[in-house]
Design brief:
The mean pLDDT is 87. This protein has 18 helices and 18 strands. The protein is 42% helix and 22% strand. With 546 residues, it is an alpha/beta fold. Strands 5-6-7-3-8-9 form a six-stranded mixed beta sheet, with helices on both faces. Helix 6 crosses helix 7. The protein starts with a strand and ends with a helix.
Length: 546
């Protein structure tokens, strides 16, 4: 049996008076790569903080193997301003800087006459220098800077970005710097909270390789099912305050979970039948005892009641609340959208793309992929405002109604409450707007709160709610899965499969692309290249080209 490095035993945690875990037990063993999954709000990040000793439990105990080191990548990392990418990455091992400063001070002191002329003082200084040099070697000090640079390159932050200030980086790039620092530190336990969010496809593939090859133990929170299939040896499901662990990757987990739920439901039904039989016998004996006042019947009734009381009750399989999503599109023009030699040049003279040609037909599901910064979101904004094209022509079919899902959620007013937002999208009464929002898993109290107080996942659900009311027949979806949990993503996939209309979607979610799209268009170096099929087909064809 593998060595246990962390054990949480009957843990209970409450935050702001709300119970998160009541009786949670979890063992993490050396060498495991665990995907931690569960719906938004289940407490996955809280559990990660508990493992990292950043949070204390209300009750229960936590064991960590003596000498175990760990590092946690936060979901939304904050970096100090005024530092370049390289400067920040080099702070991964601050003790090395302390050692170098001490060595410099020692060298300065050893050059003074009162030290080099005093045999005892010189010997003492040399001994201190030897100790510091040994520590420097142990931390791989001579290779430290080159290791940091190699790690940055492996994560897709090449030399051209090293001089960029951290305040000018995207959320995904900030995560890569923090991940690079953790990889340089090489803790025994690596805790990664959505490390793949906002990463483009090449960066995700690099991340997969790094996690697979990591010499320690890894726990990763991710909604990317493709990533979990590639790297996970175990899946830990957190739902309703309970943790259940499964052997294998994400696909193995979904299969085993379905089988377990089926077995549990069958056992529950059988037990309920047995309970009903015993209860009927008790009622029968009690009736006989009341009619003839027979002590034997009373004893028989009590005996069966004790049998019932001692029975280990099997719980009914709980059906989780699911997002209700119905995108009722409609048939419009056969030729939905056409780009003819389209270009976008900014005022500073920089051309983002030129000579783009693309045609979308009714009913198509097209995935738009490409590296971060290639101009995918800018192309979407151009489709919404065809007059902003610097050259060429954007033709939208005459009976096409566009519905737009924004990656940065800028279409939502943070000061507006949810009811007002929904009623602006469709003429609903206040009561109807509240009922509609409840279908999207919002609480009654949330309906009157400002949008700015919502989490990223909640704002994503609100954008989807608005799309439902707008009834478009062309969907422009910019990273729709970024903040959704896996159950919500699966509902979105099913909905898009039945949608009567056309879909153009930007996504870095490879599992989603394989499930939804039948054509992939790649925007790279200012030009479009088309591939037939889903993400796996696109990858295979690009591999042949390479």
């Amino acid at each position: 049996m593998a060595e246990i490095i962390v054990k949480l035993d009957h843990i209970a945690v409450s935050l702001a008076g709300r119970p998160i875990f009541a009786d949670l037990t979890w063992e993490i063993q050396r060498g495991q790569r665990i995907g931690l999954v569960g719906p938004n709000g289940a407490g996955k990040s809280t559990l990660m903080k508990l493992v990292a000793a950043e949070l204390s439990a209300d009750s229960g105990s936590a064991f960590r193997l003596s000498g175990l080191t760990w590092g946690r990548l936060e979901q939304e990392p904050a970096l100090p301003p005024g530092q370049t990418v390289l400067q920040e990455a080099l702070t991964a091992l601050p003790e090395l800087g302390d050692i170098e400063r001490e060595l410099d001070a020692l060298a300065d002191r050893m050059g003074r006459p009162e030290v080099y002329g005093n045999e005892s003082a010189l010997a003492k200084a040399m001994k201190a220098q030897e100790r510091l040099l040994h520590q420097f070697e142990r931390l791989d000090g001579p290779r430290y800077e080159s290791r940091v640079k190699e790690t940055l390159v492996a994560l897709g932050l090449d030399r051209a970005r090293w001089s960029t200030l951290t305040e000018h980086l995207s959320g995904g790039q900030k995560k890569l710097i923090m991940l690079a620092k953790l990889l340089v530190q090489q803790p025994g336990l690596l805790l990664l909270d959505e490390p793949d969010n906002h990463l483009d496809l090449p960066a995700k593939r690099a991340l997969e390789g790094i996690i697979r090859d990591y010499p320690g133990t890894v726990v990763i929170i991710s909604h990317d099912r493709y990533l979990l299939d590639e790297v996970a040896t175990h899946i830990a499901e957190l739902d309703g305050g309970r943790l259940t662990q499964y052997l294998g990757n994400y696909t193995a987990y979904t299969t085993e979970r379905a089988l377990r739920r089926l077995r549990q439901q069958q056992m529950y039904a059988a037990q309920q039948k047995e309970i009903a039989r015993i209860e009927a016998a008790i009622a029968r004996f009690e009736l006989w005892a009341s009619l003839v006042v027979n002590e034997r019947h009373i004893r028989q009734a009590r005996s069966r009641q004790k049998m019932l009381d001692k029975m280990d009750k099997i719980e009914k399989v709980a059906e989780a609340r699911r997002l209700t999503l119905e995108l009722n599109g409609w048939r419009g023009s056969n030729k939905v959208l056409e780009l003819a030699d389209v270009a976008r040049t900014f005022d500073n003279g920089r051309t983002l793309f030129a000579n783009l040609n693309l045609t979308l037909w009714h009913g198509e599901r097209v995935g738009l992929v490409g590296p971060n910064g290639a101009g995918k979101s800018a192309l979407f904004r151009l489709l919404l405002d065809p007059d902003s094209a610097s050259a060429g022509e954007v033709k939208v079919g005459p009976s096409i109604q566009i519905g737009y899902y924004a990656q940065e959620q800028e279409t939502l007013d943070p000061a507006q409450d949810l009811i007002t937002c929904i009623r602006a999208a469709a003429p609903l009464t206040r009561e109807a707007a509240v009922a509609f929002l409840l279908r999207f898993l919002f609480s009654y109290d949330q309906t009157t709160q400002p949008i700015g107080k919502l989490s990223g996942g909640e704002r994503s659900r609100l954008q989807l709610a608005r799309l439902v009311l707008q009834r478009p027949n062309l969907l422009l979806l910019d990273e729709p899965t970024n903040n959704l949990d896996i159950p919500a993503i699966e509902v979105l996939e099913e909905t898009l499969d039945e949608f009567v209309g056309t879909v153009l979607v930007i996504s870095h979610d490879r599992y989603f692309l394989d499930r939804v799209v039948d054509r992939v268009v790649e925007l790279r170096d200012g030009r479009l290249t088309e591939y037939v099929g889903g993400y796996t087909d696109y990858l295979a064809e690009r591999g042949v080209e390479a």
